[in-house]
Amino acid sequence: MYIKIKNMERIIYILLISLFLFSCSDDDKYPEGSYFSLAETGITFESNDGQQTVELINVKGEVKTKVITEDAGWCTVSVSGNSLVVKVTASTLFKGRTANIEVTSGDEKVNLMVRQEGMEYTNIPKVENLEAIPGRGEITLKWDIPKQDNFSHVIITYEKKGQEYKIILDQNIKEYTVKELMKGDGEHTFYVQSIDKDWKYGPIAQASATPDKLVAIRFESEPKTKFLPHYLAETNTPVLLRIGSLEFYENEQSIVNLEIDEELLAKYNKNNSKSLPIIPLDRIVLPQDYVYTGTQPFQDMIININTIGLKDRDFYALPLKISSVAPGVISEIMSEIVIEFYVDDLEGWYTVDRLEKCGEGAGSYPSDPNARRRYIKRTGSNTWETGYLFNAYSSGQDHRGNGGTNIQFITLDTDTKKIHIQQNGYGTSDDRNAYDPSISELHIEYLYSAWAGWWTHERMYNRSMSK
After folding, report:
1. pTM, whole model, 2 decimals?
2. Given 2.30.29.30, 2.60.40.1180, 2.60.40.1740, 3.90.226.10, which CATH number is that of 218-343?
3. Does pLDDT of 413 surpass 90?
4. Less CB within 10 Å around the terminal CB: N or C of the chain?
5. Mean pLDDT of 348-370
6. 10 Å Cβ neighbour count for 450?
């Protein structure tokens, strides 16, 4: 019995000794309070430059540090004695930022989190280093955007020809060119305003410059309907256009070429709810290497159209665009046009001028050219009518006046292409009437056969489809 008890005690003793030894071996390796650590696991800085120290605890050997967060060059760390020295540069950001630092001592590692608060702003700063660089007909603006991360974009404001323009640009754009400017308009001032992400308006930077002259070739204006003759048609009917540049260098020549753009006509028809057919391309002769002389802003350009065979009293269209200019540039405005054509020898609205040989006094003609508009109305395949003085066809296309007394009857001899005009039933002689299709101008000059020396002498010009 005693032996058994002694053996049991021995077994228990051995087990206790083993447990104690096992516990002691762990404690020898990791005794309480022996881990490598930092006095703080995270530190915070304000937005300005700063420096803080963090005590190293239970250093196991050489201490090494590394900032493991990308794009954290604003944070640096070094070892000084038994401490880490953490430095940060001033933040210009609206939001806070963080950096993770890995600290190694021996084979043990710990991490330190560094946080820097964002800067408080009452307003977004203006752009920096704004400059205005002049060029030919343009000014290029360049600037540096604010460093603050609550910066969203800029708005550029300027005036041209008395009209204000505003341009909104994306955040990362730092350059913009304003075109179609004229040296003759003098100095231009540009305002660049910063906008933050809450759409609050910041301060404005401004810069001024005067552009160099711009040679930007364009058509002078949108063309009115052009009239093509039918009975008066020749092999080549000249059509007058005006082309040039608002500014130019004296006697500097530019070579200009045009091309026909059928897509332009399709767009034109759609936008204007029309279905105009293109004039047959084999009837058109465009000038090649047309020379803009640089002696005046706009000069005449003639294109020739073979009108023979075109359908009488029908509409056509010709879409033109400027395809090349050298030297100079193609203007951003009025560089393409669609010309509408109406095939008719005489019909339309005209302005009337009394000429010196006219038997009627000047008082019979209104002084205002807008009141001297008169209509030539078509009445047959080769006959037309217009008013005598302003008693007929002056207020509308069907204003015939008092019977036929105030009508000038017009007849075209299709063989000789002579125009005969007669007032009412009064006989005429010495018909010197003529029509110039290139400028749509009718020259009226005839002598009454019964009235010695009594002439009707007028010029009808500025022809259009509407009054």
Report:
1. 0.60
2. 2.60.40.1740
3. yes
4. N
5. 95
6. 10
